[in-house]
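[User] I have long wanted to understand how a fold can be written as tokens. Those tokens are not coordinates but codes from a learned vocabulary of shapes. Could you go through the record with me and say what the backbone is doing? Thank you; the sequence and its tokens follow:
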Amino acid sequence: MSLSTSSSFQCSFSATPNTDHFLICRFGYSSRLIIVDQILQQTPSILMGETLIPFSNLWHPEQQQSIEFLVNEFLGSFNLHSFASARRTICRKILSFALQFHNVHGSFKIEANVEHVEDLIIGEQGFQETPSPPRTTGAPESAIERLRKEKFDVLNKEEEIGDCSVCYEELKGQGKEVSRIPCGHVYHKSCILTWLQINNSCPLCRAPLQP
């Protein structure tokens, strides 16, 4: 089984005339499941936080440095220390957009939306329950072992569980064993065990698994 992850950042900007100068910076998170270069599923964006940064005159170097510092601090608060260079690039993009708009309008507000996209990439062989390589960011070993041993035999007939949000196939009637994780969401057992090798959270609600 070929299994890997990658991260990227997507940015979008907008500006509108306004009575006051300020920047609204939002940070969101989403994840994608990719198999053989095809995106099978992408979770909706989750807003992790936002900040409002007032400013006066963008032509002053001190003002530019202040905005760059505050945006960098805001993005750094989301445990993105390993993406320091990406944060600096995002800060420069925001400032560059603001300066371009400053040439046209006197007073305005800038909205900058930054999306952290995490990809789970599965190779051609797909999912298999095989011995896993050493993990660095996955769920605790005790939580995975507990889930591996648990038996989830019966689904409530009235319970609408839909599809497995990892492989995107139906949970009922596929002949595959299913598991319910502590937050209450249900997945194919092989799918969620593979997912938890590199992610310590529910694919849907992002709730972490405890040891």
Q: What stands out?
A: Confidence is low (pLDDT under 50) at residues 126-136.
